[in-house]
Amino acid sequence: MSCRNSYFLLLLALFIISQAHTMLASDTEAGLGYIQFTCKNTSEYDLCVSTLQSDPTSMTADLKGLLTNVLRATTAYGADVATKVTELSKTDQDPFLMQCYTDCSERYIDAVDQIDDSVAALDSKGFDDVVAWVNAAIADVQTCEAGFLQKPGYTSAIKDQNYI
C-alpha cells in the first residue's frame, strides 16, 4: 500500500467522521464519488485517494465502509511501524534512543489496539467512541515523536512515518 503516514490516516478518519452529516445529506454516490468527496478537503489528496482505492471494497463502499477501510489501513500501517521501532530499539546502541524506540513501540501497539477498538465502536454505531479512540491513537503517535525531543540534538528515525 502507498500509505506514508499513520498520523495522516488517523486525521483522515476524524475528517470522515466530522463530515458524515454533509456526506450523508449530499447527492454523492458511494464508491469513487465518496472517495473524491472525502479526499478533496484533505491536505494530502493523492495519498487519501490512493489509500482508499488500494482496498477494492472502497469502490462500492458507503461512508461507514470508507471509514472502516481507513481504520484498517491505519491498523496495518501502525503495526508495521511498531515492528520497525521494535527492531530499532534492539539495534541502536545509544541508551536514550533505545528507550525512545521502546516507548514508541509501546505507543504504536497501544494506537493499533485503539484503532481496533474504534472499528468495533463503529460496528456498534458508537460514533463518539470512534472519535475518542482515534484521538487517543493520535495522542500516542504524537507522544512517540515528542520523546525524541526530550534531549537536544536527537531526532527520530521514524519521524517521516509519524507526520507528513
TrEMBL record:
NCBIfam families, alphabetized: PME_inhib
InterPro entries tied to this protein: Invertase/methylesterase_inhib, Pectinesterase_inhib_dom, PME_Inhibitor
Signal peptide span: 1-20
Pectinesterase inhibitor domain location: 30-164
Pfam families linked to this entry: PMEI (PF04043)
Native source species: Aristolochia fimbriata
Keywords: Signal
Molecular function via GO: enzyme inhibitor activity
Protein name as catalogued: Pectinesterase inhibitor domain-containing protein
